[in-house]
Design goal:
Layout lengths: L4 E4 L2 E4 L2 E8 L6 E8 L2 E10 L6 H13 L6 E7 L4 H6 L4 E2 L4 E2 L12 H13 L5 E6 L6 E2 L2 E5 L4 H11 L6 E5 L5 H7 L4 E5 L8 H18 L14 E10 L4 E5 L6 E2 L4 E6 L5 E6 L4 E6 L4 E2 L4 E8 L4
Parallel strand pairs: 5-6, 5-9, 9-13, 11-12, 12-14
Antiparallel strand pairs: 1-2, 3-4, 4-6, 7-8, 10-19, 11-13, 14-21, 15-17, 15-20, 16-19, 17-18, 19-21
Helix pairs in contact: 1-6
Amino acid sequence: MLAEALNICGLAVERGAKLRTMLPVPDTQIEIPITIINGAADGPTLLVTAGIHGGEYPGIAAAMELGGELEPEHLHGRLIMLHPVNIQGFWARREFIVPEDGKNLNRVFPGSPEGTLSEKIAYLISSKLFPLADFYVDLHSGDIHESLHPYVYYPGQPTEEVAQKARSVAKVLNVEYMVRSMATGGAYNYAASTGLPSILIERGGAGLCLHEDIEEYKSDLRNILRKLGLLAEPVKPRRYIPRDMTDLIYLEAEQTGCWLHHIHSGDFVEEGQVLGRLTDLFGETITTYYAQQTGIVLYVCPALAAPRGTVLVAYGKIHNED
């Protein structure tokens, strides 16, 4: 049963009320936009974060808009959304990092109350918001230097029960592919390690905030609300039913150079096919990269500048069920 009021770090929201305000990060001057909707009826609590990477725009815009559209009388349960989490990176139009400490916020969970800004933000979310939630959705995009085909990750490291709960929600999304992640880092994987089912959705990218990506993200979120029972209506059929992908390869630049890609996100590639080449500043080829396996390209770096370690292409195999 829901408590009559929901209290988050001193922000009190009564049953049947909505609050859209700024959430202070303790011991900093930073505030994060938050929407809290305490539904009129009982139900689960969904936590949504958008903009952990400040340059990944469609999920941020979708959370902003959906927070305005939904009202407490619509919900059986509670919806908490942060949009964007990395507010400093958002205003600075930076890829990946929190400008104040140069850290990738998604890599510092669970964070620390005594750490840098990134660590304090992560600690706020992991200590104050994860315990309130019954399910967690983290909205991402290809970053400013990534062109991406929509897909979803669900965690593979926790218990099978948590993994399957996350997978069942991932299957209501309008994306072609889903990946069971065996990684241990990141906000959603840390959440899963605590027993909180979670998914990370990837949609849009390359610094763009397209209307169609925003609308698809909002449709995804509404279907998640239906699946979890926060909206008392059937899950809507989508164009795609996600297919499993395995054996992902994240091809990194072996040295700094200029990247000229020969393929695009969503492309089918065959083993031995040229993926692209790295050149020097005079256009002389340093390395030509070939596909190590047949599969689908999930994202590609569309930028010319490719410092060493840049992920140039991510691709994987489609799992064919027996």
